[in-house]
Amino acid sequence: MSDKERRWKCGKCSQELVQQKVVFNYLGHTFSHDLPACPDCGQVFISKELAEGRIAELEEELEDK
Ligand SMILES: [Zn+2]
Predict the structure, then answer these.
(1) What is the C-alpha separation between 39 and 48, in angstroms, rounded?
(2) Ligand 1 is a single-atom ion; what residues have CB below 5 A from it?
């Protein structure tokens, strides 16, 4: 039951992560995404899905041009 509303915590601060708009700069391109980040130290947690999905998508976009 509780798995649905799983809360992530920062490993360092034990603070609950908050959704935050994060701007990335990758290969000279910027894009933003809402990601869980620690309100204390600012550490952003990028899921494997995002790293593999979104960045792969972006690479395809870049190859098209
Ligand atoms: Zn933290």
Answers:
(1) 21
(2) 10, 12-13, 38, 40-41, 43
